[in-house]
Every structure is written in C-alpha cells, then in structure tokens.
Amino acid sequence: ALPIEKRELLVDWMKRNTTGDKLIRAGVPKGWEVADKTGAGSYGTRNDIAIIWPPNKKPIVLAILSNHDKEDAKYDDKLIADATKVVLNTLKATE
C-alpha cells in the first residue's frame, strides 16, 4: 500500500483529472466528489475507474468498461455516464 502522504497526492491528482468529465463524473449527482482514471483503445474501448464520494456516505469504487465489435469503432462517453447512473440507482446510492 502507498504511504498516506503518497495516497493523498494520488487521490488529489485523480480528483483534478479532466479526461473523465464526460464519463463517470457526468453520471453522478452534483455535489459528489469523483477521483478517476480513464482509458481508451481500439474497438471503441473506453473505460473509467473511479472513487466516488456521495455527501455524508461511504465512498463507492466503480469501474466501467465498454467496447464494440469493430476495430475502428468510436467509443461512446455517454454510455459510461449512463451506466454510472444505472449502477448508482441500483445501489440506491442517490437516495
């Protein structure tokens, strides 16, 4: 495990990440904190792995990966945001 000061630095970097603004961050309610790491590749592969802090609740760790059948397919950021909403609703995290 990372020492606490290194862990705090990593979480700070992940919270300030902007590449995930249209992914998991777009699927969480306003006022929630998100620290994430995104990725993309061929076959329209898109992923986002995040720690989500709902107000006054324990954090949620969420990883979402999507891909397509064709190598030159474009990835779909909205799919990740929509999947985030479905997961949070299923977990009743927004209540």
From TrEMBL:
Q: Which domain of life is it from?
A: Bacteria
> Mind telling me which InterPro entries this protein's record contains?
Beta-lactam/transpept-like (IPR012338), Beta-lactam_cat (IPR045155), Beta-lactam_class-A (IPR000871)
- What Gene3D superfamilies does the entry give? DD-peptidase/beta-lactamase superfamily
Q: Which GO terms describe its molecular function?
A: beta-lactamase activity
SUPFAM superfamilies reported in the protein's UniProt record: beta-lactamase/transpeptidase-like (SSF56601)
Q: What region holds the Beta-lactamase class A catalytic domain?
A: 5-65
Query: What's one GO BP annotation on this UniProt entry?
Result: beta-lactam antibiotic catabolic process
- Know the name of this protein? Class A beta-lactamase
Its source organism is: Bacillus wiedmannii
